[in-house]
């Protein structure tokens, strides 16, 4: 088991190296660089653009160097723990990313727990009571959840939260806590603000996951080993949790790997609407401004999370399913 | 329909010391209603029989006859949308009180205290009938602790003892293994151990040996018989094989199309069966006792079609790549096998699972690369092809001449292709026929050859029964006018009655199309019926090769003798299994 984990970790190193090259190339692909997009935004604002200033900017940030030099300066810095400097924000990337990444992870995990806590029991109920009224109701709600775009749901919920509950709904913190140091009160405030984002972000995946759980379990419910267990005289509830549900859960574990990246990059619109201080909106701005240290750091972190997530789900799968362990 | 009274057996069990009644099934009917408003389909109609303490009742019938549903109804295991529509299942408890199981709530506590405790069940597919993600031990311990007040440790000791009783080697270690680490026979043993865990009074065995090869079947039947004696259980044994019935039954109930056709003591059924269908079932076993090839006066040309010399196939043994596989002795699946196949000849290859017979066939087809040795194929024009080293066009031409029929008629047909597409595919791939009209005509011919109407061409495989699907599989093999057909257990998945039909069809086609067959089977009866010569394989070696009649009646090798004596004879007066010959490897 330990050897398996070590081997997987070692295999991740060359993989991350290739990923970093890809990320760098992707960022460099659009024509121009930060200096040209900076000049463009200045002239769009009606300001005079001095070519000398632009050239100076290029020289200062080494934008004239060959790509390979730029790449190694970038990746070398990251290896030393220095993620570089954001041109756009005039501050170190690590400062910009730090708290946002933390909040993103927090929001993601809260959403995942919400999704699983709701979707799994409903999916199980729908499978066991196939074609019952409950199954139809959950299926109906599920499809509505899938069909409503997240940003629309976000707008509607914000409206009702403000109108009915008079709650401040934008961002993850009330104004008085926004820049305050961490304290118990700030945590409680964060908890309150998490509810709407979790509901918005979780609805669609809850609906999808419920359908998957229902289908997985339906596949297992009529397997011969379930009949065997029933023939032993097990009660239905114990039978269900011990055999078919246990096996139907395995496919879920393998999806953990993609949760983070989808939630970070897939929910940018929702995050912007709810003005959440998470990673998505910042990533979008960085990409638009060709702020390559910032966007590069983001993309690299996302890939790393995917790798780590996949590793976690692989380890869990090995623990859960002996068939994988031994083959 | 036969009434309950005429079916009640008296005869040998009346009088002093008659066994006590354990279970009475009275006018049992089970229906399946697919959806509300639809006509309910009857799966079991008005069935009556009685099970006596310590005796074995065999429920016989082909697939779909309702025998499994009947057995499941007894344990309350009929799944939705099926339900017991009428009748009684009277269970006589030890204290003399009778309980009607048909009236109990199948999910309720009273029923659950009987199920698995007083009446236990074992199933056909030992792989899928045990959980893949729990250890064998945990599944047995669960059954023990469900009905007995014992600690986990005591239960574990009991489970080890049970595994020892069913002859699992080193049970202390085996208890912590998973299902997929057990062989088919061992899984069935583990399943029996689980069923016996609470010393049941009745064991229901639903085709427990159908998925096993002949020698393992003999061992499992033997084991069940010994456990029956030891625990004083009654057994309801469900099977489609009259050979097995002859070996183990006290009483026999024959089912057909949801109804009980005939019911009585085993000798009465075998000697004076009332129904033609019952006689047909018995005959289907006995038929395989002679050679169809001799009867047909088949001629084998002296010309050699395929010559195999010193063929070897080994796996592993070398460290590969990143050292993932441990270096060790290579597994030699096929060891230095040599034989000649003549034109128009049927060569049988017989052996139990793991003997290397399928590996051998796959080497002949070059699905697997042989490790050493030669396979020489003589083409139509007389020239020779070295199959083991052939490549490209020569190998493609060889694959046009030599085709395969597979074991599983369900898995070997693509469910998303129509019969016409399935049959036309080899023709199209090999550019033999390309015009739609020609293809349609050829598909019609092929279907006609295997005795299927041409209008089935547009239907999908799921619309056909096992026997019909195997006919389609044969038609596919014949599409390219092959000279040799390699049939890998082509009849093993079929009911006994269908088995001889398919064999006869293949023999008819042989005469019409001038074919040769290599026929792989674990069943000596089928081989004797179908083949001219037979090669016996044991652990990768060919231990005996000779004329089918000789090998199947007076074999030389000890292993062949064991194999022969493991096959049921087909009459209750000639029980073979009790004093069968066991082969111990020297």
Structure, described:
The complex is a heterodimer of chains A (327) and B (586). Chain A has a domain at 100-282: MetI-like (MetI-like fold), CATH 1.10.3720.10. In chain A, 77% of the residues lie in helices and 1% in strands. Chain A has helices spanning 2-28, 34-44, 51-61, 67-79, 93-128, 133-147, 150-165, 184-221, 224-231, 236-242, 244-248, 250-253, 256-266, 268-273, 279-288, 292-320, 322-325; strands spanning 85-86, 91-92. In chain A, strands 1-2 form a two-stranded antiparallel sheet. In chain A, 29% of the residues are buried. Chain B has 586 residues and is α/β, with parallel strands linked by helices. In chain B, the strands form four sheets. In chain B, strands 6-7-8-3-9-10 form a six-stranded mixed β-sheet, with helices on both faces. A six-stranded mixed β-sheet of chain B has the order 16-17-18-13-19-20, sandwiched between helices. A four-stranded antiparallel β-sheet of chain B has the order 2-1-4-5, with helices on one face. In chain B, strand 4 (82-92) and strand 5 (98-100) form a beta hairpin. In chain B, helix 7 (184-196) packs parallel to helix 8 (214-231) and helix 15 packs across helix 16 (436-449). Chain B is globular. The N and C termini of chain B lie far apart (57 Å). At the A-B interface, helix 9 of A face helix 3 and helix 4 of B.
């Amino acid at each position: 088991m330990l050897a398996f984990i070590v081997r997987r970790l070692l295999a991740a190193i060359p993989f991350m190296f290739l990923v970093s090259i890809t990320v760098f190339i992707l960022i460099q692909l659009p024509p121009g660089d930060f200096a040209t997009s900076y000049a463009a935004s200045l002239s769009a604002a009606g300001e005079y653009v001095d070519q000398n200033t632009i050239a100076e900017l290029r020289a200062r940030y080494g934008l004239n160097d060959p790509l390979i030099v730029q790449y190694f300066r970038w990746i070398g810095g990251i290896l030393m723990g220095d993620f570089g400097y954001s041109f756009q924000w005039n501050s170190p990337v690590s400062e910009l990313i730090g708290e946002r990444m933390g909040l993103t992870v927090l929001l993601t995990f809260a959403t995942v727990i919400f999704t699983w806590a709701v979707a799994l029991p409903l999916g199980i109920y729908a499978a066991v009571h196939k074609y019952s009224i409950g199954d139809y109701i959950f299926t109906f709600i599920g499809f509505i959840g899938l069909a409503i775009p997240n940003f629309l749901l976000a707008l509607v919920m914000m409206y009702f939260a403000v109108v009915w509950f008079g709650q401040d709904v934008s961002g993850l913190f009330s104004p008085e806590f926004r820049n305050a140091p961490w304290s118990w009160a700030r945590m409680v405030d964060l908890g309150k603000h998490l509810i709407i984002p979790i509901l918005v972000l979780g609805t669609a995946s809850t609906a999808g996951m419920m359908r998957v759980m229902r289908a997985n379990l339906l596949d297992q419910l009529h397997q011969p080993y379930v009949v065997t267990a029933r023939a032993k005289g097990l009660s239905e509830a114990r039978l269900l949790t011990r055999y078919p549900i246990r096996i139907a859960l395995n496919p879920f574990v393998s999806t953990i790997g993609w949760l983070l990246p989808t939630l970070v990059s897939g929910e940018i619109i929702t995050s912007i609407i709810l003005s959440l201080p998470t990673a998505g909106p910042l990533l979008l701005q960085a990409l638009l401004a060709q702020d390559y240290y910032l966007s590069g750091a983001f993309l690299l972190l996302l890939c790393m999370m995917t790798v780590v997530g996949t590793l976690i789900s692989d380890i869990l799968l090995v623990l859960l399913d002996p068939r994988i362990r031994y083959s | 329909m036969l009434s309950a009274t005429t079916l009640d057996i008296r005869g040998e069990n009346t009088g002093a010391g008659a066994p006590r009644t354990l279970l009475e099934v009275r006018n049992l009917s089970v229906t399946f209603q697919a959806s509300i408003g639809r006509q309910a389909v009857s799966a079991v109609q008005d069935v009556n029989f009685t099970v006596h303490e310590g005796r074995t009742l065999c429920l016989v019938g082909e697939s779909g006859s309702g025998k499994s549903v009947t057995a499941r109804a007894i344990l309350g295991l009929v799944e939705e949308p099926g339900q017991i529509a009428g009748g009684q299942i009277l269970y006589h408890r030890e204290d003399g009180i009778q309980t009607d199981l048909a009236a109990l709530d199948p999910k309720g506590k009273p029923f659950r205290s009987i199920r698995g405790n007083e009446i236990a069940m074992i199933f056909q597919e030992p792989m899928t009938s045990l959980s893949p993600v729990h250890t064998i031990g945990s599944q047995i311990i669960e059954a023990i602790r469900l009905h007995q007040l014992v600690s986990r440790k005591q239960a574990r000791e009991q489970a080890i003892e049970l595994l020892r009783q069913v002859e699992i080697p080193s049970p202390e270690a085996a208890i912590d293994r998973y299902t997929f680490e057990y062989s088919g026979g061992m899984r069935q043993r583990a399943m029996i151990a689980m069923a016996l865990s609470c010393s049941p009074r009745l064991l229901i065995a639903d085709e427990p040996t159908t998925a096993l090869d002949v020698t393992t079947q003999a061992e499992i039947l033997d084991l069940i018989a010994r456990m029956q004696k030891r625990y004083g259980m009654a057994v309801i044994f469900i099977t489609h094989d009259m050979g097995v019935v002859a070996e183990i039954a006290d009483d026999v109930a024959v089912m057909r199309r949801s109804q009980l056709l005939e019911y009585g003591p085993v000798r009465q059924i075998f000697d004076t069966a009332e129904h033609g269908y019952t006689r047909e079932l018995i005959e289907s076993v006995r038929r395989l006792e002679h050679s169809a090839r001799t009867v047909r006066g088949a001629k084998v040309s002296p010309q050699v079609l395929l010559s195999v010399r010193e063929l070897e196939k080994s796996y592993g043994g070398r460290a590969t790549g990143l050292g993932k596989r441990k270096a060790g002795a290579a597994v030699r699946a096929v060891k230095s096998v040599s034989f000649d196949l003549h034109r128009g000849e049927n060569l049988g290859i017989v052996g139990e699972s793991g003997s290397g017979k399928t590996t051998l066939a796959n080497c002949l087809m070059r699905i697997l690369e042989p490790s050493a040795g030669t396979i020489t194929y003589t083409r139509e024009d007389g020239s020779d092809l070295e199959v083991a080293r052939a490549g490209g066009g020569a190998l493609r031409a060889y694959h046009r001449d030599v085709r395969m029929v597979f074991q599983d008629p369900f898995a070997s047909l693509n469910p998303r292709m129509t019969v016409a597409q399935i049959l036309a595919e080899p023709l199209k791939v090999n550019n033999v026929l390309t015009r739609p009209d020609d293809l349609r005509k050829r598909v019609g011919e092929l279907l006609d050859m295997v005795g299927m109407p041409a209008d089935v061409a547009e239907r999908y495989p799921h619309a056909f029964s096992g026997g019909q699907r195997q006919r389609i599989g044969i038609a596919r093999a014949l599409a390219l006018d092959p000279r040799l057909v390699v049939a890998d257990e082509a009849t093993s998945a079929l009911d006994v009655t269908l088995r001889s039909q398919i064999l006869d069809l293949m023999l008819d086609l042989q005469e019409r199309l001038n074919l040769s067959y290599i026929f792989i089977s674990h069943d000596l009866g089928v081989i004797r019926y179908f083949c001219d010569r037979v090669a016996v394989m044991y652990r990768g070696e060919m231990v005996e090769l000779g004329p089918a009649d000789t090998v199947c009646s007076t074999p030389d090798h000890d292993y062949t003798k064991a194999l022969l004596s493991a096959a049921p004879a087909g009459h209750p007066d000639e029980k073979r299994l009790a004093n069968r010959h066991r082969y111990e490897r020297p």
